[in-house]
Amino acid sequence: MKKIILLILFTSFFGALGYAQSALASQYDLMPWPKEIKENSAKFMINSDVTISINSDHSERVRNVAIHFLRQLSNKTGVFLKEGFPVASSQANTILISYDEVATLNINTNESYTLEVNNETIKIHANTDIGALRGLQTLLQLVTNNMTSYYIPGVTITDTPRFVWRGLMIDVSRHFQPINVLKRNLEAMAAVKMNVFHWHLTDDQGFRIESKVYPEIQELATDGLYYTQEQIKEVVAYADNLGIRVIPEIDVPGHASAILTAFPELGSKADYTYSIERNSGVFDPTLNPTLDSTYEFLENLFTEITPLFPDEYFHIGGDENEGKHWDENKDIQNFKSKHKLKTNHDLQTYFNIKLEKILNKLGKKLMGWDEIMTPNMPTTAVIHSWRGENEGLANGGSLIAAAKQGYQTVLSNGYYIDRMQSVEHHYTVDPIGDVTLTDAERSKILGGEATMWSELVTPQTIDSRIWPRTAAIAERFWSTKEVNDIENMKKRLATISFQLESLGLTHIKNRDVILRSMTNNQDIAALITLTKICEPLKIYARNKDGIEYKTFSPFNLFADACVVDAHDASNFNTAVGNFIKTPDTQNTDSLLSYLEKWSSNYEQFSALALNPKIAPLEPLSKNLSSVSKHLAQAIKTKFITSSQIDEIHNTLTALKTPVVDVELVILESLNQLTNYSQTHFTK
Amino acid sequence: MKKIILLILFTSFFGALGYAQSALASQYDLMPWPKEIKENSAKFMINSDVTISINSDHSERVRNVAIHFLRQLSNKTGVFLKEGFPVASSQANTILISYDEVATLNINTNESYTLEVNNETIKIHANTDIGALRGLQTLLQLVTNNMTSYYIPGVTITDTPRFVWRGLMIDVSRHFQPINVLKRNLEAMAAVKMNVFHWHLTDDQGFRIESKVYPEIQELATDGLYYTQEQIKEVVAYADNLGIRVIPEIDVPGHASAILTAFPELGSKADYTYSIERNSGVFDPTLNPTLDSTYEFLENLFTEITPLFPDEYFHIGGDENEGKHWDENKDIQNFKSKHKLKTNHDLQTYFNIKLEKILNKLGKKLMGWDEIMTPNMPTTAVIHSWRGENEGLANGGSLIAAAKQGYQTVLSNGYYIDRMQSVEHHYTVDPIGDVTLTDAERSKILGGEATMWSELVTPQTIDSRIWPRTAAIAERFWSTKEVNDIENMKKRLATISFQLESLGLTHIKNRDVILRSMTNNQDIAALITLTKICEPLKIYARNKDGIEYKTFSPFNLFADACVVDAHDASNFNTAVGNFIKTPDTQNTDSLLSYLEKWSSNYEQFSALALNPKIAPLEPLSKNLSSVSKHLAQAIKTKFITSSQIDEIHNTLTALKTPVVDVELVILESLNQLTNYSQTHFTK
């Protein structure tokens, strides 16, 4: 029986993958975890003789990524390679890449590959060049070392993705993101095998794409912050080179403040002064769906910009139109009566269907947020599921409903990374879960997208809001459902996160930049300690009613230096749990190391010359120090007085109130420890 | 008498500026130091009411920089401004900017401004919009704080530059630098009032500019790393917006390996296989100056690209042509005889004069490195002085010679920042020095340029090689000659350096990125300690004969994490000097703090899991620890044995040999301390 129980325990970690897979996942920090991996006894040494050889020069993608691979390998290992570019003929110490055909990127692209590491050669084979790219990313993650050398351990991997749509959406409207920000994030996406960049190009806060037909757009709706058509092409080509499709989103008919600033005559409310929005939220400006000129405008615009985006899918937004300006406009009401459109939803469906015809003419498939899934909407549209419990619906419900109704569909509910929730939260959202689907229904579920809405992020902080959590989401989309062990994921994620930094991501290094700025370049150690146990307020609590932060507010504050999944918090929480369960020397020491660090941290904090940016953190640091000191003392002496317990409780209460838009995420554990001390150490 | 001596001391610091100026320079961290600054008792508070108002909307430059100023102000202070954009009418708490005219950038642009800070208003006035930009940069540097608020202290500044040409050259051939690298460096240049970006676009290692007339260039001479013409325009517009001129350099007839890879028929040696160069140094491939096709090619190319660069000056390189392939080519020798060109210099002058005619037709002035200054070269050319003692000439000699011969001229000798020499070295190079010049001669000396050759820098490390030293060079070019106090410069530079980080520069933060990569994300504290006393090998010693590092070699090694002017070295050297002079408690403690840090650092280092990148540093860390421990012990106990002294000397000798391309820059001080210990503490 015992053996069976053990087996059940292991399979609950790795399900169908079984024990061997589980052991390997402790050993190799691969993410996303491949479909199948076997070990052999080989070792491919990384020395200066290593070369790459490609079976064909038809794919620019493979050649470019292979060159980049050589640079990354060299930088990672410090090895001075003799050959910095792919060589024609294979020899010893060669990485042999072969593929059968060059793919055109679409939802049917074959991304599978095999990877075989032997002593003298590494073979990556794939049906398409895209599969070869995916294999090279896995290979880079396999590089490891001992004291004297870097090498790639002998493995054979057979890999293929679970979902065909593994996306990241970046909102460049609320805060404009220059193309170098996009490029480094595309590199990171490719590193974790994501394949769709959804570019949320327009919203109330700015319309970010140059139009030559309507230059009023960039003149009036962008604050000068937009992509030229050449830059759009540059990003699309960059993404394609990495095997990533680009889906543009032009959000209509709502979220239209910016575009109506340039073209107020297309708005639903007469004599309304439209202006670029500076706050966050859902706003009233909406295109007028009853005007021919609206469709003429959109057709001209779409005709101009669709050639920039070779992908078949085109996102028209369609979300969060509350129809207030439609209700207030008599002509629109009359139009509804005349066309027998009972509700504003019907009117929007009328609008969407007109748009779909325009897009179809241009060879595009219409995609929209799940509000577009109305009874009359043709199933040729693609439903982007985003609403859930917060909007009064079942989480992910619109995804399943869409699939059952015959719509292609993509899930973002559960992957809203701007809500600043833990990686665990997102990782445990499975697009399908336990729902039973027919093959036809299953085929409609394309995959998912993490969404980086940018109300609260700037180019300086966006990476730390996307990464590393999105790597775990990427695994959810690529790997089988059974790859779901959270602790193992976190272990691998820690390695992947640091490796992503080598692509130029700023998610780690910009913390210190912000802290240096906050302190006027004083010693930031005391603040670093605090960032490791403080997290930014979650689920939009940071920007109450959307008006605390405007688009031009400062975003290099303490909350911007803090990240989700604060580094010390989860370890401390574990340490407290262990100690309470087994208060032996090891668990006691482990716990005390945290308490003593926080206890003494206030002294370091106090050495700082205060200024208005640091000063508000002073009570937090002081209170944390006080609680930590008392608890450490109690644990060391096994004694604490009732009045000290009272004092701790009071201090913990004070610590509960968030300051400077962060919350201390170890309060629950400190509370447990206080209760434990009360029970065990008061006499 | 005493008073007079004091006065002499002070004026030796600040010369004609006198005592008041000196005191202010201790107080305000402005760089470059303005021509005239006076204090008043006002304080302009930074609160949410602060606005900017501009007297005219004719200058896009002022509007854009003013918006950027508001963002920087907000980020620096954490103040949530109510108005994120310039406002039309002035009111209380307003920064009033006014200028008389919009400048076209050239060497005659008036860059002067006045700045007046009062309690309720700040007034920046300038003759041109460019002067207004310069004033805004000074204003940002004035922002300061106390515990409770940020404010701008009451001052009146009248400022104007000493030289009209204050440049930074970036070589994008040896290592390609993407445009975001250039943009952030342009921002930094503007912050220290530099006004010329010299773009070294071509060399043996790559020709980095797209040609539509000769697409073979990007296909064969770039490895795919080049700027499209749209990107060139983007950078030029970005620079212009900051008041920075852009001077392109197409280096001919030497440094031509890349271009001859695409067009071997223009080379001087028949049947030679040209290829993009991967090593560093001076190479033989040279354009053939006797062929009509060479001039036809250059005329077509220049005709295509000169419209991208509105500036009048056009740099044709002209340096380091050793003429080996000319000597080996009979046709070229015959051509020389026929045209009575005695030397290869004469032949190159023939070439240069033909080029000048082509450029003149295109409205451009020819500029070249100082080899072009041959007896027959017309004085319409501009001489870029670079050679000095290392090339067997007087340092800066060609600058003065050029001016005296009537050439416009710019100095780079002494400002080769890729030589990895101290900021002090560059700061003390004055373009004119004590040479007496007529007004006419003086007017020919336009200014100077720091040169960032890129054999050993990548996008990851280039910022830390340019900054902060270039800010001190910028001061040399802007401020009066009498602003030359080195200690005061270093104090101000420390502040400016950290402030530059807010522009996105990576010169500080990328150290830790490299160290994390080296250690596989272990604790980097032990390595940070070493980076603060180690510097990369200087004056090209790192890349012996130019062949140790190829363009594709790794550049994220320990040497790449280290910088010139290592942080702890100069402080330690001072501490040793102080101790030897006055071994009191304070000086002893100060010294011991360093020795004890290094002594214990080996323990931290030893805790690292070694790998091939860290292992070579182990002896350095160990030896440093041993020496530090012995010396600390000697100083504390006032006793050391002769055999210990011998041991120290042996260890210091071992430490003298550079490892991993860095040198320990505290050896001289450790030696002094050892000798002191021997004299005072052996019994």
From TrEMBL, chains A, B:
Catalytic machinery residues: 320
Keyword Hydrolase: yes
Residues in the signal sequence: 1-25
Gene3D superfamilies: Chitobiase/beta-hexosaminidase domain 2-like, Glycosidases
Domain of life: Bacteria
UniProt cross-references to InterPro entries, sorted A to Z: Beta_hexosaminidase_sua/sub (IPR025705), GH (IPR017853), Glyco_hydro_20_cat (IPR015883), Hex-like_dom2 (IPR029018), HEX_bac_N (IPR015882)
UniProt keyword annotation of Cell cycle present: no
GO biological process, one term: ganglioside catabolic process
Residues of the Beta-hexosaminidase bacterial type N-terminal domain: 28-159
GO cellular component, as recorded: lysosome; membrane
Molecular-function annotations in GO: beta-N-acetylhexosaminidase activity
Domain Glycoside hydrolase family 20 catalytic: 163-480
Alphabetical keyword list: Glycosidase, Hydrolase, Signal
Sequence similarity: Belongs to the glycosyl hydrolase 20 family.
Official protein name in the record: Beta-N-acetylhexosaminidase
